[in-house]
Amino acid sequence: MKPLNGAQVAQIAQQFGTPVWTYDAATIRERISQLKMFDTIRFAQKANSNIHILRLMREQGVKVDSVSLGEIERAVAAGFATGAGSDDIVFTADLLDRATLARVVELDIQVNCGSPQMLEQLGQAHPGHRVWLRVNPGFGHGHSQKTNTGGEQSKHGIWHEQIPEALALINQYNLELVGLHMHIGSGVDYSHLQEVCAAMVAQVKESGRDIQAISAGGGLSIPYRVGGETIDTAHYFSLWDAARNEIAAHLGHPVHLEIEPGRFLVAESGKLITEVRAKKDVGSNHFVLVDAGFSDLMRPAMYGSFHEISVLRADGSAAGGNTRGTVLAGPLCESGDVFTQEEGGVVTPRELPTCEIGDWVVLHDTGAYGASMSSNYNTRPLIAEVMINAEQVKQIRRRQTVAELLALEN
Ligand code: LLP
């Protein structure tokens, strides 16, 4: 959780209205610099795909991972290169819909294949296409079961025992194998990391194939709670570097090492600013209702995720005085629209300064999987996004209008 500039929060809330997302560019640059020892940092843009964030990434030498046709078009719009000579964009998926297949072939974008059918369909459409194999090593790990992307419960990647069949398809269709990729989930800890590194080395050796690169996937966690564990990126790198060196020694040539984080690069840069609009006591629970809901920030409702919360008075000063156990909730017509809850939907009061109508409530560390997971539920327009860069405050996405939503149906 980054310190708050209360005056700036109040100014942004007044200028752009609430709810509003803000991102601090300096924090993103700082996180990028912490991973500079990797040969390639590939931003998993699903975490935050605003074109201005993507441009900032590109300017810092970061490449990008896209997982849909829309994300590919965002990357192209942000200036990432395409074509035979480029690896700026890698498309990662478990299937290729027809429109995306046509576009990756047209743009000659590397494809990280998570199913045998992707290899077949790509090979039929474009022999020689550059591919990665996304391997499910047989185990996974996540901050929630919903973000665990390895093991038998996961639809992701090619099951490790089926890699020989995938390699046979690569031969059959004359595809060019660039490398192997493993992403076992979000919120990986060091013990799992060691297992993944060992599995990667074993996979490369067993495959009997020459490859140029390996990808460590993403999954680096951030300290959502004050005092929470901060990842030691040098240590993280050293584990992967050792795996890479073992593979390089086995293959007899240098091997390129990629990392593919989403959350680590952007989560801490972001805040969601909301306004207190109502309060009520419901039996023993004290509810404070703000103008943002799970249509904006879905993580608490979806995973029981914890975000630190600050309360500011209308002038931006920190709310002092008494605190009380508070259930922070939104405007949606659904009981699960609560920001203070545990996985499974148990409403959990948080000790917060006593809120007044008109206070600003800030939800911290919402730069990853915040705006990118928003929806139009209850016909609520997507909210504005603002970037703070070198003291300058710039709107990087305007608020959607209800008229724009209705127009789709006319
Ligand atoms: N690479 C692949 C192939 C992925 O599937 C993901 C995330 C990443 C990289 C980036 O993972 P990260 O470094 O951000 O953990 N909505 C959830 C997270 C879902 C992640 C899905 N895949 C959340 O809000 O926590």
Describe the structure.
Helices cover 29% and strands 24% of the residues. The strands form three sheets. Strands 1, 11, 12, 13, 14, 17, 18, 19 and 20 form a nine-stranded mixed beta sheet that branches. α6 runs parallel beside α7 and α8 runs parallel beside α9. It folds into two domains: 225 residues, Alanine racemase (TIM Barrel), CATH 3.20.20.10; 141 residues, Lyase, Ornithine Decarboxylase, Chain A, domain 1, CATH 2.40.37. It is α/β, with parallel strands linked by helices and 410 residues long. The chain binds ligand LLP. The site of ligand LLP has 21 residues, from α10.
The stretches of 5 or more residues where confidence is low (pLDDT under 50) are: none
Shape: elongated
Biggest sheet overview: 9 strands, mixed
- From the 3D structure, determine the CATH topology of the largest domain: TIM Barrel
How many strands? 20
- Strand content is 15-25%
| Number of domain modules | 2
CATH class designation of the largest domain? Alpha Beta
SS element count, helices: 12
Q: Which class best fits the helix and strand makeup? A: alpha/beta
**Unique bound compounds:** ligand LLP
Mean pLDDT level: 96
Output the radius of gyration. Answer: 22 Å
CATH architecture annotation of the largest domain: Alpha-Beta Barrel
| CATH homologous superfamily identity of the largest domain | Alanine racemase
Q: In whole angstroms, how far apart are the ends?
A: 44 Å
Helix content: 25-40%
